[in-house]
Amino acid sequence: MITQSSICAQSMHFSMPIATRIDKSLRRNPIAALRNLVTSGKSRKFKPLLHDMSFEFRAGDRVGLIGQNGAGKTTLLRLLAGVLVPNAGRLEVSGVTQNLLNVSMGMQTDATGLENIYLRGYSAGLSGQEIKRGIPEILEFSELEPVINDPVYTYSSGMRMRLAFAVATSVKPQILLLDEWLSAGDRLFVERSKERLRSHINSSEILVFASHSPQTLQEVCSRGLVLKNGTVVFDGDIEAALEFYESDEYQAIELPARGGNRKGAKRAR
Amino acid sequence: METLVDSSAPGEGQRSGVAPKKDTGNPSAIRGRPSILALFHDLLAAFKAPGFWLYGAWIDTNLRYRSQALGAFWMVAGTLAFVVILGTLYSRVLRSDSETYMAHVAVGFVLFMFLRQSLQLSARLFKKNQSMIQNGYVKYADYVLRMFCGQLINLGYNLLVVIGAVLLTPVQASAAGYVLLLTVPLFFLAGLGSCFFLSVLGARYPDVTELMQTLLRLFFFITPIIWIPSASGKGAAIGGFLYANPFYYLIEIIRGPLVYGVVPWIEIGVVAAAIPIIWILAALAYARAKPFVALWI
Questions:
Q1: Which residues of A touch B135 (CB under 8 A)?
Q2: SS3 string of B135-172?
Q3: Residue of A51, A86, A140, B250 with fewest CB within 10 Å of its CB?
Q4: DSSP 3-state of B123
């Protein structure tokens, strides 16, 4: 039964505990040294990364995440992927997801390309039969047929990416999460992968795509979510979102005050 | 292909137990803290879809010996050398009049090495799989099963040495052998539970990795593997300390019936009592840690 996929977040907060080293000198601070035995020499602070995020993605949405470095794009993707869990607020993800958050994505570099296809396929919950059926198509798209029995460490990063992308999209996930590394491929591959993304995302599927390339975003996405310092500052049509991001308005947005940060941290506990 | 979407096969996106549930009134649901049964849920899911960890275990073993001329022989080479040389040399040094010394060493060494490897790998398991975890494969039970299964394959090969040693020594087959049907599963249950517990502990406290390495090296010498506890009491010089050594119990419940033809009821009882404790601890740690493992590593 195919259920409608959706992602829904309501005033979601996320803080990351960061370990900071504390003084380890026994002479200068003997009490701290004792405490260090318990805390392993680190003190934990909470750094709020996302605060008060609310949005709703419906089936058919192709969402581009836009924002400067450190705006929280990758963190948001990790939350959506279920790697991280929000500290407060609500996040509901329904649908089978496939994630391409880092290029290596747990590829076993000393195994062959074919073995990695199996490993990825199994980790996506496919049976051996289903993987076998998908292989010709993966080979065709990734154009790796001649080298598929070579170990992956002999592949260039572009080849690895092609393999990863082909496998992740071959299983037709309901929700596809992509971090910005599509741009690492050559132009031909980028063109074909855009095409594939467009054709795969039909009415029952959601794509969340973080990128810095306005052109790619415009071609692939229909909706834009602009982030700044862990908050959503714009949500709407992709054209408008890109325009907003490039305008002075985006730069002018006040960063959340320090007080706001502490509030986030408190909520996290 | 479509079946992925149709079936309830756990894909990467399935996160029963982790994701905040619809009920927002419950604060634990907001925090997304999984129930104490999370470990067993995940184990059940892992056994329903064993593809990843079974294939992973096979590939890990396969890759390790792929580029070597002697391949899988290296898995047994160390054990073989150890058992043969120690079995002949040490039996003289220790002036052991026991004819079963070779089998004693073989069984003890192989079982201990299995536990040692599994526990050591557990402590740094999630760190090792960091890239996959960060990419969204958060079914942590699968990583533990993959590692444990890989060690089982290794153990399987090493059993060849055990069988050889047992055949070479005048071990009488006795009715006590039937007890192995009970004690072997107990051995693995205790081992797997400890692996789960240690994998979480090692993710949270990186020092555990080093601690385990030190401890396990020490335990090799204070566990009766290359020496034999005196025939009358258990363990001559080491005396009562023997009973404080968990590895002694785990090894004895298999070695006793197999090599000596005795049924070590006390040891079996201790292991059987420890298993629920180990698994409850593991389940508690697992449930507590599940939302945070990705942050710790």
A1: 81, 83, 99-102, 105-106
A2: CCCCCHHHHHHHHHHHHHHHHHHHHHHHHHHHHHCCCC
A3: A140
A4: helix
| Closest alpha carbon to B203 in B148, B247, B143 | B143
Selected residue of B12, B14, B16, B52 to mutate for chain A interface (largest A Cβ count, 10 A): B12
| Shortest CA gap A29–chain B (Å) | 22
- From chain A residues 62-81, the ones with a CB under 8 A of any chain B CB are 78, 81
Residues of B in contact with A86 (CB under 8 A): 20, 30, 32
B9 → closest Cβ in A81, A99, A125: A125
| B251-271: pLDDT as tens digits | 999 998 888 888 888 899 999
Name the burial class of residue B192, with classes exposed (0-12), middle (13-18) and buried (19+) by CB atoms within 10 angstroms of its CB. buried
Q: What is the secondary structure of B181-227 as a DSSP string?
A: HHHHHHHHHHHHHHHHHHHHHHHH-THHHHHHHHHHHHHHHHSTTSS
Q: Does A171 touch chain B (CB under 8 A)?
A: yes
| CB A229 within 8 Å of CB A255 | yes
Is the ipTM above a cut-off of 0.90? Answer: no
CB-based burial, A8-34: b 16+ in 10 Å, e otherwise: bbbebbbbebeeeeeeeeeeeeeebbe
User: CA-CA-CA-CA torsion for A222, A228, A231, A236, nearest 10 degrees?
Assistant: -20
pLDDT in tens, B208-231: 899 999 999 999 988 888 888 765
Please give the pLDDT value at position B8: 35
Facing B12 at nearest CB: one of A2, A98, A119: A98
With CA atoms as reference, report the closest residue to B41 among B180, B168, B157, B138: B138
Q: What is the full DSSP assignment across A72-91?
A: SHHHHHHHHHTSS--SEEEE
For the whole prediction, is pTM greater than 0.95? no
A207: CB partners within 8 A, 6+ apart: A61, A62, A63, A175, A176, A178, A197, A201, A220, A221
Distance (Å, whole) CA B293 – CA B272: 30
Q: Strand pairing partners for A62?
A: A207
User: Quick check: A88 contacting B, CB < 8 Å?
Assistant: yes
Question: Where do we find the tokens 């039970």?
Answer: B141
pLDDT by 10s per residue, chain A, length 269: 456 788 888 888 888 877 666 555 666 666 666 666 666 666 667 788 888 888 888 888 888 888 888 888 888 888 888 888 888 888 888 888 888 887 666 678 888 989 988 988 888 778 888 889 889 988 888 888 888 898 988 988 788 888 888 888 877 778 888 887 666 667 788 888 888 877 776 656 888 888 888 888 888 888 888 888 888 888 888 888 888 888 877 777 776 544 344 443 334 33
Please list every residue in chain A whose beta carbon sits closer than 8 Å to the beta carbon of residue B19.
82, 85, 91-93
Question: Are the Cβ atoms of B18 and A1 closer than 8 angstroms?
Answer: no
Query: Does residue B5 register a pLDDT over 70?
Result: no
